[in-house]
């Protein structure tokens, strides 16, 4: 069992990078990728735990970059990162600044709407992250008793079309692709259905992103049905792209329908998505101990 898409508290996950690694070890994953939103902060910590506590597990350093897109949300995974290039560092800095501006807008609207006082620095300290996002606001509202559970905060305040929704800054796709490739990684389009284009119209879009340098698509994800994943895989084969699968796991209390090592249809993620898909794209071999994230050369 493997997982090529998960998050820690370095972005909007519940567990620290170290605890995320230990949880992957506890679940006996053979291959595990940490792909925090717009951040590589947790990769060194996770790599260290993997090496010291379960040397046989393959750790895949990664990132999930928010892309500027005309519809829905476009997220680009960078898998198998070997370093943080200047280009990737610049992208992270740009997106972090945009995230801070978005968070302040949410805070201002929360105060105006229901009179609640929130503070970015206090929330970052509370949740142990530099990448504060909507899930953190949702958890805070639940803890304060304003909503019963985090999902209620999205339904009432934070979700698309709700009163506190603010579209966050996205990187240009071509810039993000270059940032991933100069860091030694492979660009993979995460959960393609999130761009809100029907499957019978998505092929030209996937062809375009392939032509621009995206090499794979995450065909299997908890937000798609099994038959939808199969259709995305069929399109990928036609376009000469490989496919991956992930859980998009965030941890206890966050998106409770997502479980580490499981994907569409709550099925276990098969080894083939590493052995036959991502590993060949990485050149047939990968050892995170040869990356800057393990060596500490950042």
Offer a few descriptive terms.
alpha/beta; 11 helices; 12% strand; 7 strands; seven-stranded mixed β-sheet; 298 residues
Structure, briefly:
This protein is α/β, with parallel strands linked by helices. It is built from 11 helices and 7 strands.
Describe, in plain words, how this protein is organized in 3D.
There is one protein chain. This protein is of the alpha/beta class. The protein has 11 helices and 7 strands. It has helices at residues 17-26, 43-53, 86-114, 120-127, 134-143, 150-158, 173-182, 203-211, 226-239, 272-281, 292-295, and strands spanning 2-3, 31-34, 58-67, 74-79, 186-189, 216-220, 242-245. The model has no long low-confidence stretch (mean pLDDT 93).
Largest sheet: 7 strands, mixed
Number of strands: 7
Alpha-beta content class: alpha/beta
Distance between the termini: 30 Å
Which parts are unreliable, with pLDDT below 50 for 5 consecutive residues or more? none
Q: What fraction of residues sit in β-strands?
A: 5-15%
Following the backbone from N to C, one meets helices and strands in this order, namely EHEHEEHHHHHEHEHEHH
Q: Can you give the mean pLDDT? A: 93
- Helix coverage percent of residues? 40-55%
Main-sheet strand order equals 1-2-3-4-5-6-7
Total count of helical runs of at least 4 residues: 11
C-alpha geometry: globular
C-alpha-based Rg, rounded: 18 Å
């Amino acid at each position: 069992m493997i997982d090529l898409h998960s998050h820690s508290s370095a972005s909007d996950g519940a567990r620290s990078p170290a605890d995320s690694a230990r949880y992957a070890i506890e679940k006996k994953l053979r291959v595990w990728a940490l792909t925090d939103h717009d951040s590589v902060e947790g990769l060194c910590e996770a790599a260290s735990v993997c090496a010291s506590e379960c040397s046989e597990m393959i750790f895949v350093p990664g990132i999930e970059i928010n892309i500027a897109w005309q519809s829905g949300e476009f997220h680009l995974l960078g898998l198998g990162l070997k370093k943080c290039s200047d280009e990737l560092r610049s992208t992270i800095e740009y997106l972090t600044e945009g995230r801070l501006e978005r968070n302040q807008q949410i805070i201002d609207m929360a105060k105006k709407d229901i009179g609640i006082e929130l503070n970015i620095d206090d929330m970052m300290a509370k949740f142990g992250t530099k990448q504060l996002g909507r899930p953190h606001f949702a958890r805070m509202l639940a803890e304060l008793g304003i909503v019963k559970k985090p999902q209620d905060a999205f339904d009432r305040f934070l979700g698309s079309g709700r009163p506190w929704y603010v579209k966050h800054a996205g990187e240009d796709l071509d810039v993000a692709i270059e940032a991933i490739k100069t860091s030694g990684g492979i660009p993979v389009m995460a959960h393609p259905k999130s761009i809100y284009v029907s499957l019978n119209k998505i092929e030209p879009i996937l062809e375009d992103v392939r032509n621009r340098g995206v090499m794979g698509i995450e065909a299997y994800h908890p937000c798609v049905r099994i038959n939808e994943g199969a259709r995305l895989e069929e399109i990928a084969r036609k376009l000469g792209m490989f496919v991956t699968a992930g859980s998009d796991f965030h941890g206890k209390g966050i998106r409770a329908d997502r479980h580490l090592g499981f994907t569409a249809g709550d099925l276990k993620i098969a080894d083939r998505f590493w052995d036959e898909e991502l590993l060949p794209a990485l050149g047939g071999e990968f050892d995170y101990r040869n990356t800057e994230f393990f060596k500490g050369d950042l």
